[in-house]
Amino acid sequence: MDRDGYISNGELFIVLKMMVGIHLKDGELQQVVDKTIREADQNGEGKLSFEEFSEMVSNMDVAKQMTLDLF
Q1: Hey, is 49 helix, strand or coil?
Q2: Nearest Cα to 36, choosing from 22, 26, 46?
Q3: Of the residues 25, 40, 48, 60, which has the fewest C-beta atoms closer than 10 A?
Q4: Helix, strand, or coil here: 4?
Q5: Could you tell me the pTM of the whole model?
Q6: Residue 23 maps to a domain
């Protein structure tokens, strides 16, 4: 959204909030965002490059990624 070429934690939160916000509380959504960044951020920058995002999307089950492990 800020056109820096990366997807930040905050940017991913905003996009997912628009997609599933009515189904998740903000705290739950933040857990999903944190998990997504943690698992896809290969170089540890705390944000996703286009390449990292593309690889994540092509190598995963999106529904599984967007779930919380409650137990």
Answers
A1: strand
A2: 46
A3: 25
A4: coil
A5: 0.74
A6: yes
